Amino acid sequence: MQQWKQMLRPQPARAILLAAVLAGLLPVFLTPAAAQRSATNSGVTVAQADIAIDQDLLRLVNTERQRVNAPPLTINDKLTAAAQRHAQDMATSQRMSHDGSDGSTMRSRIDATQYNWSNIGENVAMGQPTAAEVMSAWMNSPGHRRNILNPAFTELGVGYATGSGRIYWVQVFGRPL
């Protein structure tokens, strides 16, 4: 729990960067070196691409995939950017949906990162406080489970943000061309 509190603690110096990203002044797709940060904007706390949580979810996903002999996934920065954009949007709009508040779709968010894909998928969730709990919820849902175990996917992006005390989670799955 302490890790979550520290991760979600507002850091005003980084709020300017988040505001620029949300305003479209900076690209959303960031490298892992620039990805570990948190910021606050309009009461929404954003934990963007925290490497520990990304790796925890990747480990949990790959553990499930190993059970069915599906190949392991790797983290992809562009898919993470698409997932993070959508998690931020859901937290800001305080609604869970595969459609963005701006009319964006999974495909348009992924295409905006210039990820060249042959297969894509998306899981969303809201409210689970840990990576383990959101994975449990996804594995207990047939459609989400199908995405997690789909052997056609080779890469994963993870996004999460909080709004009004709720955590919004996004997994974006892909296979490059």
SSE topology sketch:
Layout: H1 2-8, H2 12-22, H3 32-35, E1 37-41, E2 44-48, H4 51-67, E3 74-75, H5 77-93, H6 106-112, E4 117-126, H7 131-139, H8 142-149, E5 155-163, E6 166-176
Parallel strand pairs: 3-5
Antiparallel strand pairs: 1-2, 2-5, 4-6, 5-6
Question: Can you walk me through this structure?
Answer:
By secondary structure, the chain is α+β, with helices and mostly antiparallel strands. Helices cover 45% and strands 24% of the residues. The chain is built from eight helices and six strands; from the N terminus they run αααββαβααβααββ. Strands 1, 2, 3, 4, 5 and 6 form a six-stranded mixed β-sheet that branches. Strand 5 and strand 6 form a beta hairpin. Helix 5 crosses helix 6. The relative contact order is 0.19. The N terminus is likely disordered.
Largest sheet: 6 strands, mixed
Residues in β-strands, percent: 15-25%
Computed structural class: alpha+beta
What is the β-strand count? 6
Secondary-structure element string: HHHEEHEHHEHHEE
The proportion of residues forming helix, as a percent range, comes to: 40-55%
The Cα radius of gyration reads 15 Å
Number of helices: 8
Give the termini distance in whole angstroms: 40 Å
Mean pLDDT: 79
Quaternary structure annotation: single chain
Unreliable segments of 5+ consecutive residues:
1-49
Tell me, what's the shape?
globular
